[in-house]
Amino acid sequence: MQTPIFMDKTERLLRALMALAWIIASAALWWPSPSNAARIKEIASVQGVRSNPLIGYGLVVGLDGTGDQTTSAPFTTQSINALLQQMGVTVPTGTNMQLKNVAAVMVTAQLPPFAQPGQTIDVSVSSLANAKSLRGGTLIATPLKGADGQIYALAQGNLIVGGAGAAAGGSKVTINHLSAGRVPEGATVERAVPTPMNQGDTLQLDLNSSDYNTAREVARAINKRMGEGLAQAVDGRVVRVQMPASPSARVAFMADIENLTLDLAQPAARVVVNARTGSVVINQSVTLSPCAVAHGNLSVTISSTPVISQPNALSTGGQTVVAEKADISIKQEPGTLIQLAAGTKLADVVKALSALGATPMDLLAILQAMKTAGALNAEIEVI
Question: How far apart are alpha carbons 283 and 289 in whole angstroms?
Fold first, then answer.
């Protein structure tokens, strides 16, 4: 009489297992799948809101005998003379100045957007002549100019050089680079650069890469969040946005829209090749049409052996003749033929080419041959 109870428990257990299996099998339909999401601030920038490069010429003093050799860098002496004249010191004409503790340098910096007078920025200092090291030096006041020739910052301070070196008896050892350094917060901003944030009724968002779908999604996300008709995609790179009138409202408006997320489409299939280093980068959109690839190695070896012919010991004439005997051998390894199916993804492409034993330089030739044969569904860009 206990058998029906046992069968009832078994049947209920089977039903529970079937229900659990159905839930797991259908999870892909209702569980949110990861998407290629990004914020607007990561894929676009505001036109005109950017950093500006600054450059200046200056002198670094206080070096421990590692400065410029003035015989081959006369402009260092001229710069010291001009500086001393500004300080009221006149150097007699024809004075031979040995300035081993001074180095002529170029000073560069990036002026960030919205930087105001009185704020500080970092500067980079690089040797202009033949100074051995800038370690321990001090940059004296150097005006930094923009592309328009106006002075936007003034730099001065002690250098930080991330390296060390020593030399003695003709031997030399160097760690990192000694002819360049930085001055953290070494420049004071003297002039602000106007930005288009508070100019006009519209603001232009420039996408980092040209893509029509991305431009449409940016405009759609802004209109959905802030109101219809405010954003308009002009082309594949530009999105024009209507802005509020007051400056405070514009700041709040930009704070809201720059954090909006949107789903990006897969990028265009592209293979980037660096011909100098042999580096090859393939993105996830690259696919292949049906093709077969054969790869083999051909090596040529040339060895030369000197052959010396001398006259006999008892001969009265003759001379020593030096010749070379060259041996040339050619070795061709058997090629490997591999077939690739249509629609092959990136992982399969890499695995297949690695199975061929292809080096990065071989990979360049293989990919170019695939493109010529019409089997590589991607754009090859050589940098």
Answer: 16
